[in-house]
Amino acid sequence: MPDSAEPADHDHAGPVDPDERIVSLDVLRGVALLGILVINIWLFSMPQVVLSYPPAFGDFSGANYWAWFVSHVFAELKFITLFSMLFGAGMLLFFQSKNGSDTPAMQLFVRRNILLVMIGLGHAFLLWYGDILIAYGLCAFFIVAVRDWQPKDLAVLGVVLAALPALLELLTGLGGSTAELNDAILPAQTALDAEVTAYQGGWLEQMDHRIEAAIEQHTVSFLGLVAWRASGMMLLGMALFKWGVLTNDRSATFYRKLIAVAGSSGLALILAGVWHREFVDWEPATVVLFSDQLNYFGSILLSLAYIGIIMLFCRRWATSIVGTALAAVGKTAFSNYLFQTVAATTIFYGHVLGWFGTASRVEQLGIVLAIWLVQILLSVLWLRYFRFGPVEWVWRSLTYGETQQLRR
Hints:
mainly alpha, 16 helices, 73% helix, 0% strand
């Protein structure tokens, strides 16, 4: 995602040279960027409701059920959590690298976040309503105020903020009418058909749903859920960075314990959530307001285990073919994030192939693998000749008010 893995010992106005970046952060960002597509592909290819209630559309049996199961257990909320943590860490890196520069760091920070929100608005309203850049840019304006806090305080506040929307949903479930909640969660079949028709149509035909969904996503959903979770995970990312967890400065024993404890407890919560869904026979209100909370909290723990796995991987294989490929994706994550939207909408939306509402969950995973392959190859090849990804270059040039050197 759009943050930098810049070391903290440089004093200059421009961005740090790509060769001096922190490799573990680039690899982690590359893994997060690729992993998020496993879940985003649902929204690219099926009606919006499948994110909150998967059985609402398409075949949900046999291999397609297991495709959902694997995606839900190992990907849903896990990689967006990593994104948010990395964005928080990137904020600290940004300020540290600008210490002593001619242009005040806060001035540059405000400019880069305004640009981020502007790019996000274009992404959300012109291409895909599920944009996360707007939320990150807006949350950053508030989170930056506590960047100098001690890591323990950052972590505590982060967990509290992230927990608030989940607790509110639980209270809503305890006090609401199940029948009314079911109606609110599941749209009418006519609404589902209309969404499929819209996205199987041309770009203009898609706009009615896209604009409505984008407005809801970046107002109601942002205030009710996204802002709290994103801000909380950014703060946790700051704490992990200050503790040396994200920069691979802790011992191998620490990372092994992190994997064992966070991984086992996270998986236990997530699998308990799956069991609960089946136990209540996928009753919509119960699933959304109760079962989902187990994955909500379990995903934070499992993402910590992923950090441990990737840190240990980087100690042995950072310069391997796989490590180099993942780091290349991470270095160009902003470009790759937008590329995923362009690739997926080309495949699923009606202005090109129009496969929206027709691909099974198994087929969707096949498409994810194909997009991954293209992204990895393009990222590696691009960085042989250029210092930044194309979107990163534009973003940085506008932030610093001067054209950055692009070619190596």
